[in-house]
Design brief:
Blueprint (H helix, E strand, L loop, with lengths): L1 H9 L5 E9 L3 E9 L1 E4 L7 E7 L9 E9 L3 E6 L3 E3 L8 E9 L4 E5 L3 E3 L4 E10 L4 E10 L11 E11 L2 E12 L1 H5 L10 E8 L7 H7 L5 E6 L2 E8 L2 H15 L6 H4 L1
Parallel strand pairs: 1-5, 4-6, 5-8, 6-9, 7-10, 8-11, 9-12, 10-12, 11-13
Antiparallel strand pairs: 1-2, 3-4, 12-15, 13-14, 15-17, 16-17
Length: 271
């Protein structure tokens, strides 16, 4: 009720959501707080804890604000995903939707951050940030897929604003930083050979693990000519997937996630 009153006073309705989750042990919720349009479900899982983040507003538009904070401790094993693709709708007033995610993984805990695709609609505007704090013993798989335009509906020329920042620290020191900013005529920018050569679907995959090096050749075998993978060091693998459609993107991405997670892809990815 409080959030609804704020929205009425501020003008057009705006969605707001907060999630704070702390996992402990293999499948235990230590702390959970959820507010506004954010909800979390926890389906049964053979190993560890799985959290499905749900945006009950059905998508994001200008002025929406979401904040998620995830902490893994006590050697916990946590998988985080979404109920479906997140849609970024047209911003009627030119403002951006803001999404801030923070993940902290302590000691030898493990996190798999596996949201499904974010789809940017024409005139959609979003600014989001993912900050991950890892201990040197922790393991993390981070995947962020994005599709520009509703390709199945013929929406192949879109404008808007997409600003994305992924920042990873290990033992308090920055280990990886990726920034993407596309604004204005996004589809025209994507057509540039040095950007994506016309492809409209992309994903970044980051795998920090003592076993990262052993997956390098397998990942490379799944990639098309526009995509690439490399090792920052023997325990830090980074891959960029670029594909013409979301379907082609998943054809590359799903086998890699399955391999790294030991055939334990989240249920929502298989529906």
């Amino acid at each position: 009720m409080y959030l609804e009153k704020i929205n009425r006073l501020d003008g057009p309705p705006r969605a707001k959501g907060i999630l704070h989750l702390t996992s402990a042990g293999q499948s235990k919720i230590k702390n959970l707080f959820q507010q506004g349009a954010t909800r979390a479900l926890f389906p049964r899982r053979a190993n560890g804890l799985e959290c499905i983040m749900i945006n009950t507003s059905g998508g994001l538009t200008g002025g929406d604000k979401f904040s998620n904070s995830i902490i893994c401790e006590d050697h916990s094993n946590l998988t985080i995903t979404t109920q479906g693709c997140e849609r970024i709708y047209k911003s009627g007033d030119g403002t951006v939707a803001v999404v801030e995610n923070r993940v902290t993984v302590k000691n030898s805990s493990r996190v798999h951050w596996l949201p499904q695709e974010t789809i940017i609609f024409d005139q959609g505007r979003i600014k989001r940030q993912l900050k991950v704090e890892l201990s040197s013993e922790a393991e993390a798989l981070i995947v962020e897929p994005v599709i520009f335009g509703r390709l199945a509906m013929g929406e192949t020329n879109i404008s808007g604003h997409f600003e994305d920042k992924i920042e990873i620290h290990v033992d308090g020191k920055i280990a990886y930083l990726d920034k993407t900013r596309l604004t204005g005529e996004i589809s025209k920018i994507l057509k540039r050979p040095a950007v994506s050569n016309g492809s409209a679907a992309t994903a970044i995959l980051i795998f920090k693990s003592e076993s990262a090096k052993s997956f390098l050749n397998f990942v490379r075998e799944q990639l098309n000519a526009q995509s690439g993978v490399s090792l920052l060091n023997n325990s830090f693998l980074v891959a960029r997937f670029v594909a013409p459609t979301g379907y082609k993107l998943r054809q590359m991405l799903v086998p890699v996630i399955n391999k790294i997670t030991d055939e334990n892809l989240p249920k929502t990815w298989r529906l």
